[in-house]
Write a structure and sequence with these properties.
- Helix content is about 50%, strand content about 15%.
- The chain has a four-stranded parallel β-sheet, with helices on both faces. Strands 6-5-7-8 form a four-stranded parallel β-sheet, sandwiched between helices.
- By secondary structure, the protein is an alpha/beta fold.
- The model has no long low-confidence stretch (mean pLDDT about 95).
Length: about 210
Amino acid sequence: MTLALLHTSPVHVPVFDALRDAGHPGTILRHAVRVELLTTAAALGPEAVADEVEAVVADLVTGGADAVLCTCSTIGAVAEAAGIAVGVPVLRVDRPMAAAAVRAGRVTVLAALASTLEPTRALLTDEAAGAGLPGADVRTVLVEGAWDRFTAGDHDGFLDLVAASADAVRDADVIVLAQGSMAGAAERTTTRIPVLSSPRSGLAAAVVAAGR
């Protein structure tokens, strides 16, 4: 079974390899890193890279992928749409997290990149509708300065800012870390509010899809 992962940062590769080794030994992961997709999507919107994403997904499928997991929340929706064209499951890493979040009640979304906020809100709304809930009660927060630290390679500083932002949240039943790169911040928080991240649950769903 081969699962292809579409990343927009190389930092995700060792994270998902470790999760595979811990929970899904035997699954072959094929990584494709396309940093430019996020750069363009952040500037022009996700639809601006829809054709490129579909081409990358098609190449991964031609290369033997049984399923594709997109680990970038900003382009997750266009990646899912590409799956319809290529005929294999294409999943976005944050959908299982979103499904759990909307069932918890009031959601506060933290993101380091502004372009991630609206796609995540739309995903939560979609999951709430699919679960028959009246709507998703969502508040979004941009963690100021976090993305600058991420792009500068200051991973600890990046995670510390995200964790501090989570600890400042009030009046929420669950906190969602919108980007997979933020996952490590959950271990640095002191809040009693549940903090959800996407890599573990997203990979688990993709492994199931790949073995369909």
